[in-house]
Write a structure and sequence with these properties.
Structural class: alpha/beta
CATH topology of the largest domain: 2-enoyl-CoA Hydratase, Chain A, domain 1
CATH superfamily of the largest domain: 2-enoyl-CoA Hydratase, Chain A, domain 1
Number of helices: 30
Bound molecules: acetoacetyl-coenzyme A
Strand order of the largest sheet: 12-11-10-13-14-15-16-17
Largest sheet: 8 strands, mixed
Number of strands: 19
Shape: globular
Strand content: 5-15%
Length: 693
């Protein structure tokens, strides 16, 4: 079957791209479109050409799988130039998403029409590159520099109505797109409207300082990323140079980015995110259970965030709490968060009421009798959770899924007390649950396949990235985090300061260091978590009790104005000499001679210990693939996307480098903490990586 077919509708030729699933601009599509353009130009009977797509979307971009290898001609750059140069009007007819190279094709057409549900954008920046086929040259010429800069540097797509309002789309077509596009084109021809080539327009800039201002803002907002800054430079070419020269420079910048490590990591993240949706051993056609209503037990911060995830997706939620005041407080939190959206103008009062109206609060578990899924989000304590699961097993209907939001506890024990272990699964959300993209689903020993398939699918419904983990202490994410936290504590005892460790991780690319996070989340919360896991901690961890000391002092973090740092009334943090003194005294009491610890050692001990734990998690089958670990860390723990996740990063620096460092720290810190995982050792010594086994 040809990827591009041309049919004639009277004097109008229609080129239909058909390259499932997303009509990416593969070599075959580029060739087909180039042939369609040549054919339309050469055929005297053809007076205009419409480019339209079959299937679910307009062209969603270049074929990302072709990146990195030699690109076979015709090149997209030549194709768009040929499209624009034609003396006959070309019209792009858009449905679904016109993204990246797809929008560049549409920009090179002389006119664009779209259905109301269409979305348009240049998301290349999210792949660590920039639109390399004229996008940064034509978009500012068509919609102005300011609007183009924001679309290109943020990479977000916009709705058809907005595209029409800013001049990106010429007409919205209600009803059949092809019929509407033909009618639009017939009218063009009848009126003899001149061709409007985007490339011959002038890119107007109202505020010449916009380039520097945008760069300064991006350096903060997208700290560490190279592509956004390069996008600004490239848009500037549209102002400084004629199309041909600007496009040449744009292409050169794009190539440079594409070959760089950041883009490789970001492309890895794109595909890994899609890979983790496929669970090995779980057939894609596994029948899922119907989930039309949800119950949440526990109206605390996590429970409230979880409720918001579901009502945002339009699903009614029954929220169970111990008493009316805590339930009211939860509703109040929701109203406050949505209220912020109303103030910003991104939500109407009616929508707010409609959303909160989907929540039914109750103190009676029997109100859960009809729901299809219940998520337990009560206090992180086995006895309390067991009580809840014993009740849920009795009050819910047969076939209802019983999920726990536990971060560390053994799901299989909860499954047993429910009396319905096949229905029990982990659905581990991250705080704030209504914001964080990660949903770590956890497969119990007896969880039935259709329950797994259902919770993986629900993730998509509530716009989360679902990753499946096996049962272990902390699952994928927190198990690795616990090792990093442990190393941090050890280094505090050995000579580092909280602010030094925070800065190393900040410079590595995390938004915050561990002690800033601890102060934000609450030292009291950390203390409780530490006590709950006490039996699992090593002797040295028991003794590294700085958290306990801060807790005893009432230094709970930001909420009390002091934790590791002190805070002013604007919550600005200052390193506290008192805490440094406390740590120094602690080291002395433990008989540890403090030494200067360099940033490299801090970085290696914090990151490599996680990689080593990741290798164990893989070897034990807790994560099916390194992709799952990378996505957990990218979407749930702020690992810098341009490094691709801990396992991808490990491969980038080389597993032998990690292995050698682990041996070094094994001697320094102890075999208990730094013995290389067998998988890591095997791969490192064979010169392989997690992704090239
Ligand atoms: N190239 C290759 N494969 C692609 C692709 C692309 N541009 N876009 C999507 N796919 C693949 C996905 O990997 C996935 O494959 P599997 O089923 O094998 O996992 C499949 O298409 C379906 O994708 P999604 O699961 O993401 O489907 P969705 O319906 O949820 O979303 C979409 C559709 C909005 C188009 C989303 O896929 C998307 O955002 N794609 C990327 C768009 C993009 O970044 N375009 C710019 C490309 S770079 C470019 O064009 C450079 C240039 O100018 C030179």
């Amino acid at each position: 079957m040809a990827e591009v077919t041309v049919t004639k509708h009277g004097r109008i030729a229609v080129a239909t791209v058909d390259n499932p699933p997303v009509n990416a601009l593969s070599h075959a599509v580029r060739s087909g479109l180039a042939a369609a353009v040549a054919q339309a130009d050469a055929d005297p009977e053809v007076k205009a050409l419409i480019v339209i797509c079959a299937g679910r979307t307009f062209i969603a971009g270049a074929d990302i799988r072709e990146f990195g290898g030699p690109m076979q001609g015709p090149h997209l750059q030549d194709l768009v130039n040929d499209l624009e140069a034609s003396s006959k009007p070309f019209v792009a007819a858009i449905h679904g998403t016109a993204l990246g190279g797809g929008l560049e094709v549409a920009l090179a057409c002389h006119f664009r029409v779209a259905v109301p549900s269409a979305r348009l954008g240049l998301p290349e920046v999210k792949l660590g590159i920039l639109p390399g086929a004229g996008g940064t040259q034509r978009l500012p010429r068509l919609i102005g520099v300011e609007a183009a800069l924001s679309m290109i540097t943020e990479g977000n797509d916009i709705a058809a109505a907005k595209a029409k309002a800013i001049g990106l789309v010429d007409e919205i077509i209600d009803g059949d797109l092809l019929a509407g596009a033909i009618a639009f084109t017939e009218k063009l021809l009848d009126e003899g409207r001149p061709i409007r080539r985007t490339g011959s327009l002038t890119a107007k800039v109202e505020n010449p300082a916009i380039f520097d201002e945008t760069k300064a803002a991006l350096a903060k907002k997208q700290r560490g990323f190279k592509a956004p800054l390069a996008c600004v430079d490239s848009v500037r070419f549209a102002v400084d140079y004629p199309l041909e020269e600007g496009a040449k420079r744009e292409y050169a910048l794009c190539r440079e980015l594409m070959q760089g490590s950041q883009s490789k990591a970001q492309r890895h993240a794109f595909f890994a995110e899609r890979e983790v949706a496929k669970v090995p051993g779980l057939p894609e056609d596994t029948k899922v259970r119907d989930v039309k209503s949800v119950g949440v037990v526990g109206p605390g911060a996590m429970g409230t965030g979880i409720v918001m995830c579901f009502i945002n997706a339009g699903l009614p939620v029954t929220l169970v709490g111990l008493d009316q005041p805590t339930l009211e407080k939860s509703l109040g939190t929701m109203r406050k968060i949505y209220g912020g959206n109303v103030t910003k103008g991104t939500m109407t009062e009616e929508a707010l009421e409609a959303r909160v109206g989907l929540v039914k609060t109750t103190t009676d578990y029997t109100d859960l009798k009809d729901v299809d899924l219940v998520i337990e989000a009560v206090f992180e304590d086995m006895a309390t959770k067991k009580e809840v699961f014993a009740k849920l097993g009795k009050v819910t209907k047969a076939g209802a899924i019983l999920a726990t939001n536990t971060s560390y506890l053994d799901i299989d024990q909860l499954a047993e007390v429910s009396g319905r272990p096949a229905d029990v699964v982990g659905m581990h959300f991250f705080n704030p649950a209504n914001v964080m993209r990660l949903l770590e689903n956890v497969r119990g020993a007896k969880t039935s396949p259709d329950v797994l398939a259902t919770v993986m699918k629900i993730g998509k419904t509530i716009k989360k990235v679902s990753v499946l983990s096996g049962v272990c202490d902390g699952f994928i994410g927190n198990r690795m985090l616990a090792k990093r936290s442990r190393e941090g504590m050890f280094m505090l005892e050995e000579g580092a300061t909280p602010w030094q460790i925070d800065k190393v991780l900040y410079d590595f690319g995390f938004a915050m260091g561990p002690y800033q996070v601890a102060d934000l989340a609450g030292i009291d919360i950390q203390y409780a978590a530490r006590k709950a896991r006490w039996d699992k901690l090593s002797e040295r961890e028991h003794q590294a009790n700085i958290v306990d000391q801060l807790f005893a002092l009432g230094r709970y973090g930001q909420k009390t104005g002091a934790g590791y740092y002190t805070y002013d009334d604007k919550r600005k943090a200052t390193p506290d000499p008192y805490v440094e003194d406390l740590i120094v005294k602690h080291s002395a009491a433990r008989g540890i001679t403090r030494r200067t610890i360099g940033d490299q050692e801090i970085r290696e001990r914090l990151i490599y210990v996680m990689i080593n734990e990741g290798a164990k998690i893989l070897d034990e089958g807790i994560a099916a693939r390194p992709h799952d670990i990378d996505i957990v860390w990218l979407t749930g723990f702020g690992f810098p996307v341009y490094l691709g996740g801990p396992m991808f990063y490990a491969d980038t620096i080389g597993l032998k480098t990690v292995y050698d460092a682990l041996l070094k720290y094994k001697d320094l810190v102890g075999a208990e903490f730094f013995t290389p995982a067998p998988l890591l050792e095997r791969l490192a010594l064979a010169g392989k990586g997690f992704y090239s086994k």
